[in-house]
Specification:
Layout lengths: L6 H6 L6 E5 L6 H8 L5 E5 L3 H5 L6 H8 L4 E5 L7 H12 L4 E6 L6 H4 L7 E5 L5 H4 L5 H14 L3 H4 L4 H11 L6 H6 L5 H12 L5 E2 L1 H8 L3 H13 L3 E4 L14 E5 L2 H7 L12 H19 L5 E6 L5 E8 L2 E7 L11 H6 L4 E5 L5 H4 L1
Helix pairs in contact: 8-15, 10-15, 13-14
Amino acid sequence: MKNRIIKKALQKQFFQGKAIILVGARQVGKTTLTQDLISKKDTLFFNCDNPSERESLNEKDLDYLEKIIDSKKIIFIDEGQKVKSIGQTVKLLVDRFKKEKQIIITGSSSMNLLDQTAEALTGRKIVFNLFPLSLEELFPKKNPLEISKNLESLLIFGSYPEVINQKSFDKKRNILEELSSSNLYKDILEFQQIRNSAVIFNLLKALAFQVGSEVSYNELSNTIGIDKKTVEKYIDLLEKNYILFRLPPYYKNKRKEISQSKKIYFYDLGIRNAIINNFNLLDFRDDIGALWENFIINERLKYQSYHKIYSNNYFWRTYTGVEVDWIEEHDGKLFGFEFKFNPKKKIKAPASWLETYPESSWKLINKENFTDFIA
């Protein structure tokens, strides 16, 4: 098992009087990481995929909860979003036991877990995000040769733990095909009362072909055959289930800079490629630019999250088509980045970017210098 970066940060929060909530997409390793941190003999484990275990926590009073917990020091609630009263249940436990016991909840849906616990657990929880394996976790020594040898596989098959552990491309592909089926978004189908999984998949497929491009909800509505509000609702659900995320535009001058369109990226490229059924090697692809942009942004998000870099992230584009792929706003400054896979493409910072934001910086990130940016 790869050593996860947030492991030590999680350990430091044990028995500090707060519930630990670990969120992330299905199959990214939340349960494995938690089990690596705890002692089985001291832990009471609830698998909330199991209806009977789920109901043993749902709408129960403190007296009942104390009896089932007994002398256990750690209460581990896996897939806690499936417990309807999860917020109130955990609130009772945290208020009763404080630093005496540790409650850990994992979940694959922020809508069903974080939204349910937001009010009840105010001041009583600390939230951690877990992503597919990061470049730092895969290559802790930052060996350039090792990274270079594996880069193509990461761009095609992504970095889900189970996928990384497979040696052959066929096995990687088989796992991704299974992951990208309705299992990936089963919480949306189960909790949001959406019956037609084909609509979700068709939307995902349309979005997968538009990675790195500005997305039009009207265009998606016409393509898929559902209304614009439903498109927006489904994209919001897919984002809250850690399948994809939206990147907003940065603007100050509304007459010159795009102010509404957003870009969409996938949290894992293997999932994206499985959705469009394209596992071709890089020499046989016409989407290398999109893959590279999505890969670098994914890894940068992991780096920011794991190293507590608090940044507002955007892209920038004018109505005349001048663009900067990635903008970070932190410490009162703007940092612009352009992503190009081919190191032979020597481009300069857009003059209009430097003129509009003279105090900002700009840097080109390519295949030769990307490791310092994301690891």
